[in-house]
Methyltransferase domain-containing protein
Amino acid sequence: MLNEREAESCYLGQFIPLHYHHNMLMDNNRMQAFKAAINHAVFPGAKVLELGGGTGVLSWFAAAKAEKVWCVEFNPDMVNEANRLLAQNPQGHKVEVVHADAFEYLPPEPVDVVICEMIHVAMLREKLLEVIDNFKQRYLAKFGAPLPIFMPEAIVMAVQPMQQEYIFEGYNAPIVQFQETNAIYTGSVPMAEPAVYSIIDFVAPIDLTISWQGSFTMATDGNLNALRFITKNILSVVQQQNATIDWLNHYMVLPLPASLAVKAGDIIDVSFRYRGGAAIASLQNGLQATIRVPETLARAEEALFA
């Protein structure tokens, strides 16, 4: 019998089917970004912990330099798969796959780097924020300062108003859409530039509640019926070059509760609030977008009804 948190983890995608993990191995953008970031952050002789290790590939990247790597995975099927794959790769013996809950596990000794790729666009579904926040408190209680380096080091999230096509072979279906960042979608028309709504620095205290109120000036006429959420993961900061190693999640396009006919120059007020790690519906249910009434028109209406 699953307890409440385990049941929620299953529902929110923590026990992702095996083929999804295999697909992640074939995601060149993800693989190359993490390989470069881990190669930069992990130094010879380092101790590394990965929380939510999946196939073990990121732990294996770390093992190229690290003295020891602990790869923590809660799904028993993935534990077996990680052990199977690591056994077929050089340096795989340096990775110890631990069948444990990332919310509870602490390494037997202090570590230098913590990798956690429980990342979903907008920090939904996956439990990265909660896992790292919980880990930091338990780690400091056991080992004291300093904290290890976290990967990703920071998350930058932005939102963009969109006109989105929802007709599929004549069938109207306003659904959540995930889009590759390097592809062109003719049915997706940006209505304004994106706005950053949250920056999460994992060194600082983590607020699990994410909320934003802001406005956009429409760049074109059209039908505003969606918001596109953009998540940039700053995997590692390369201070010597004043640069970062980044990885973008797929864009997530969410339908608005009601579409708005807009003209260029219209100001749209947008607000939302959700908890990091919650279901996508928690963000959808709180989305609000309204056309701001010009002050001159508002004053005229007030005078009319005075």
